[in-house]
């Protein structure tokens, strides 16, 4: 088996490991703080996102720390908190597999805004996937002004660190757990 195949197998084993929801009160408190800090960091980078976290979206899911890595075959994984009209309703887990020209690793914040109740309900029903054709808006000052929903969702990402070069194809799969 080639090295790239072993890397792919290792990454796929890592994706989905762990629990979607925090297991203890202290884990829950720490995760809430991490999520709130991610939201504030996003709003600080683009103040227009305050509208998205307010009246512009029916609901949203915030992944405060997604880790991504790859060498031809890659993957990403992160846990998040789901909100409906500003109220925390549950937890989510994101797993992504990719194949193509890629090398490196990075960490980033991702938030998915849901336009209406129907789109949020589709997400929380389970087995929700987001194809490679859904593009994310890189958070920078003013980026939120031109962003709009596609198929009921709008995705924003902000790099936290690392370096990754890629031209790959893949999609994200999500798991939801009610609070």
Note the gap between the termini: 42 Å
Spell the H/E element sequence: HHHEEHEEHE
Average residue-wise pLDDT: 82
Number-wise, the strands total 5
Describe this structure in words.
- The longest helix has 21 residues.
- By secondary structure, this protein is of the alpha+beta class.
- The chain has one domain.
- Strands 1, 2, 3, 4 and 5 form a 5-stranded mixed beta sheet that branches.
- It starts with a helix and ends with a strand.
Give the SSE layout.
Layout: H1 3-14, H2 25-45, H3 49-53, E1 59-84, E2 87-114, H4 117-124, E3 129-130, E4 136-138, H5 143-146, E5 153-178
Parallel strand pairs: 4-5
Antiparallel strand pairs: 1-2, 2-5, 3-5
Main attributes?
disordered N terminus, 5 helices, 47% strand, 179 residues, alpha+beta, five-stranded mixed beta sheet, globular
Produce a short descriptive summary.
The protein is α+β, with helices and mostly antiparallel strands. The protein is 28% helix and 47% strand.
């Amino acid at each position: 088996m080639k090295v790239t195949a072993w890397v792919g197998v290792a990454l796929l084993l890592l994706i989905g490991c762990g629990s979607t929801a925090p297991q203890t009160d202290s884990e829950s408190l720490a995760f809430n703080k991490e999520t709130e800090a991610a939201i504030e960091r996003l709003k600080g980078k683009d103040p227009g996102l305050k509208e998205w976290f307010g009246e512009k979206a029916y609901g949203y899911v915030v992944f405060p720390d997604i880790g991504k890595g790859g060498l031809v075959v890659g993957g990403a994984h992160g846990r998040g908190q789901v909100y409906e009209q500003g109220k925390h309703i549950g937890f989510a887990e994101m797993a992504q597999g990719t194949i193509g020209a890629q090398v490196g690793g990075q960490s980033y914040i991702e938030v998915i805004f849901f336009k209406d109740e129907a789109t949020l309900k589709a997400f929380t029903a389970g087995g929700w996937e987001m194809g490679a054709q859904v593009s994310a808006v890189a958070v920078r000052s003013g980026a939120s002004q031109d962003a709009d929903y596609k198929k009921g969702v709008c995705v924003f990402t902000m790099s936290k660190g690392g370096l990754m070069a890629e031209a790959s194809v893949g999609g994200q799969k999500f798991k939801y757990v009610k609070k």
